[in-house]
Amino acid sequence: MPRLAVLGYPVGHSRSPAMHNAALAALGIDGEWSYEAIEVAPGEFEALVRAMPGEGFAGANVTVPHKLLALAVADTASETAQEIGAANTLVFGPGGIHADNTDAGGLVASLPESPRGRNALVLGAGGAGMAAVWALGALGARVSIWNRTPARAETVRFEVTERAQRFQVQIEVKVVAPEPEPTEFELIVNTTAVGLGGEDPFTELPLAPDGFARGQVVVDMVYSSAPSTLLGAAAACGARTVDGIEILVQQGALSFELWIGRKPPLDVMRAAARGE
Ligand code: ATR
Predict the structure, then answer these.
(1) Ligand 1: which of 84, 145, 148, 204 to mutate, most ligand atoms within 8 Å of CB?
(2) What are residue 98's DSSP bridge partners?
(3) How far apart are CA 247 and CA 47, in angstroms?
(4) How far apart are CA 133 and CA 162, in angstroms?
């Protein structure tokens, strides 16, 4: 029976096992496949991954803090994983360990419209920010990055520009001044951790509760059971909102297809991820 898992540190809060096991059950293949959570410290990640194929694993999701290492450990990598410089999906096969990245595809799939030609504001310059900048930029959005620590935003801009040249992808990206004007953007993506610990997004981020525009798309990658303060305010202004669970579901569905070769039922995954 092929096994699947999510590898993280910590990983106890992950909704991926519930979501994937629900999809396996809905397709009637939960007797053949299983999906579990494995907590693995950074120092043990490589040895664990190398042992997994021998223990019956067909693949894995990789989450914080292992996404860079996952790419480094792999024998082969998809173009997207190489371009982003990180992997969230591993597939174990005859060719060894293959790395892929469905975070970018998951983000884009969760948007109500294509980002092509749109002005996008990405808040945050960590790993999630980097992946969002690449995903939106590679699809033809004009991306502005804002970060509390501007030097990190500059680093992301530099890295994305350097990779874009190396992989011959057209990407338009700049760092914005301390206080961008949010209504100038058709798309706003919060990739910062603000909200996770109950912080007020409107004191920590360059946004105001009444400063969203009707029709604007506002994405908050933070996921919790209740709608985030940020998305609540955006929706009240008439913006279209996308939460972190929808992105989790979309990236998970893409990973599922890579391992199993079948499209999972999104509604089943959504309900399971939301704990319904
Ligand atoms: P990840 O890889 O998941 O994106 P990370 O590398 O820890 O995580 O990055 C977290 C992001 O959240 C950073 O952009 C961080 O801003 P700094 O670079 O200035 O640290 C941002 N962040 C975390 N707490 C924040 C806060 N209270 N206000 C503003 N930004 C915050």
Answers:
(1) 148
(2) 76, 91
(3) 29
(4) 13
The secondary structure of residue 31, as a DSSP letter, is T
* CA distance to 10, 132, 155, per residue, from 89 (Å): 17, 16, 25
DSSP state of 87: -
Task: Name the pTM for this structure.
Answer: 0.95
Residue 276, pLDDT score: 87
Banded pLDDT at 198 (limits 50, 70, 90): confident
Does 274 contact ligand 1 (Cβ within 6 A)?
Answer: no
Strand ranges inside the chain, DSSP E: 3-8, 34-39, 57-62, 76-77, 89-93, 96-100, 119-123, 142-146, 172-175, 187-190, 217-220, 240-243
| Rounded CA separation 40/47 (Å) | 10
CB atoms within 10 A of CB 241: 20
Region 216-227: mean pLDDT is 87
The tens digit of pLDDT for each residue in 88-145 reads 999 999 999 999 999 999 999 999 999 999 999 999 999 999 999 999 999 999 999 9
Q: Whose CA is nearest to atom 6 of ligand 1?
A: 126
What is d(CA 250, CA 109) in angstroms, rounded to the nearest whole number?
6
List, in order, residues 6 or more apart from 128 with CB less than 8 Å away: 103, 191, 221
Largest CA distance in the chain: 55
C-alpha to C-alpha distance for 252 and 89, rounded to whole angstroms: 9
Indicate if the pLDDT at residue 224 is higher than 80: no
| Integer Cα distance of 84 and 101 in angstroms | 8
Residues of the chain above pLDDT 70, percent? 100
